[in-house]
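REVIEWER CHECKLIST
Item 1: Sequence provided? yes
Item 2: Single chain? yes
Item 3: Sequence as submitted:
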Amino acid sequence: MAVTPKSYTSYLAPRDITADSRRLVDRLSDEMGSGRRSDVGRSVASDFSVVSRLAHELDTFDARKAGLAQAKTWASAAQGALSTGQDALSRLAQALPATFTPTGLSDLDVISLSGRNGLEDMINALNITIDGRAVFGNGALDAPLADIATLLSDIEAIAAASPDLASYEAGLDGYFAVGGGFETNVLALTKTTAASFPDGEGNKIEFPLSADDREVRGALRQAAFFAALPSAGFSAQEILTSQRGAEIVAETQGAISGLIELQASVGSIEERVETKITRLSDARLDVETELARLTRVDEYETASHLQNEFSRLESLYAITARRTRLNLTSFLR
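Item 4: Structure as written out by the authors:
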């Protein structure tokens, strides 16, 4: 007996004639929301050379700004270290007038302790590093100064061997002079050229600043003078004469002025860096504006296209419903 094959009814869904319009509505909606064309190629008529050039300029600006930011950080750290030295000497200077009187002898230990603390603060500040590079060591990987123990040991030996105040001061001056004990025992500069950073214009921003500077030595010497007084081999009464006391106060103020001069020098470099950063930011903004102009949409034109597509989409839905006898409920499923 012959077998009659089953008949199958195949169902082919109607072609979605709204797909293109829905995709266009999505794209136009994105462009309205972002203000930028989704297809950059259409914006530049497939000429991507302009976009590539502007993008390269933005990358270059970022690289140049990174170098300037490093220089700015370096200058800020140097200013902070110099301020620490100023503060340490200022505390000494404020206490000196009351100490250098016949009744101030009992405060000598306090002044000595203040000198030791000031030395420690200054050495710690001068050994500051940025990304492992010593700010006052010309960017070397090693700290420019030995710890305070070495310095204290040296100056206390000088004080103990001094028969009078004049000998003590001469010994300290020789110790902190070029080629003296400070240079051979405490100073540990391993890099002699100044730290420098690219300025993004083919030049370098240099920081001629180190723990070997005359102003730095002067500040350390002044704090050391008071730190080692308890070890002196002469009577501290010698420094309580009004004339010498006044001169020591003036010398301490002079050491502070030296650090202020260094700060002013660093400040002039900071100002140049800030000017370059500002100029660079302005130039970058111009490039960003030009790039945005190439890719931005005309909001009025885009809104008009979007409204037209919505109207077209409504018409297509109506046609689809009429052809397939669908109702609103069908669309909502």
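Item 5: Key structural point noted by reviewer: Residues 7-13 have pLDDT under 50 and may be disordered.
Item 6: Recommendation: ____
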